[in-house]
Write a structure and sequence with these properties.
mainly alpha, 58% helix
């Protein structure tokens, strides 16, 4: 069971709870029979955090990268590859670009409250982090240094599986070239395009993130 949602801040943590949660995830994935079962397990773990705390699921991946040995990281990366291949990568909801931010569900009479979200798209960890930083109104907007650290950790974790890297780079490149019905801003798409390019070229996670964010942050809002 992951740490409680209230404790899921987006940053490295050396608390025993996060280390234990990472160990439990690795152990549970190791016990699954095949990629389909591992994909379902990842979905269940993400669902325990819920949309409000999707960053907690990202933090759990970061904890695996931070605390796990090479074998543990490979187990999780291979599970992510299986989920990517099945289009079942656990994803978090982001407001469409230009939509109002998340607000109360609705007022009496069925009218949406001012500021209620008018459209969403579900994004995987890398895309979600970039959109959270670069798009006004995104839920749970973290600080830039937290996003950089999390992006480096997720990219390094995925890098433990060559298949996961290939599939995730393909996914990001598609998102970068498709406005996703208005979900992603130009800044976010330029960042994702640069991340895909440098990741495909085999750059280090540090260089991938630095160059990706530089591409997005150099654009006008």
């Amino acid at each position: 069971m992951p740490p409680r949602p209230a404790d899921t801040r987006l940053r490295y943590s050396d608390t025993p709870r996060w280390e234990a949660a990472a160990q439990r995830l690795v152990s549970a994935l190791r016990e699954q029979a095949d990629d389909d079962a591992r994909s379902r397990l990842l979905e269940r773990v993400a669902a325990r955090f819920g949309d409000e705390h999707y960053l907690g699921f990202v933090q759990l991946l970061c904890a695996v990268e931070h605390f796990g040995d090479p074998r543990a990281r490979a187990i999780v990366a291979d599970a992510l590859a299986g989920a990517l291949a099945r289009h079942r990568l656990p994803a978090g909801a982001i407001p469409a670009w230009g939509a109002h931010s998340f607000g109360p569900p609705a007022l009496g009479g069925g009218l949406a409250a001012a500021g209620a979200m008018t459209g969403t798209r579900r994004l995987g960890p890398v895309e979600f982090l970039c959109a959270s930083l670069l798009q006004p109104g995104a839920r749970s907007a973290p600080q830039r240094e937290e996003v950089e650290l999390a992006l480096r950790s997720v990219i390094a974790l995925v890098g433990a599986s060559r298949r996961a890297v290939q599939l995730y780079v393909e996914r990001i490149a598609v998102h970068a070239d498709d406005p996703l019905q208005g979900t992603l801003s130009r800044r976010t798409r330029d960042t994702l395009r640069a991340i895909a390019t440098h990741w495909r070229d085999g750059d280090t996670p540090e260089r991938i993130v630095r160059r990706g964010l530089a591409a997005g942050l150099s654009m006008p809002a």
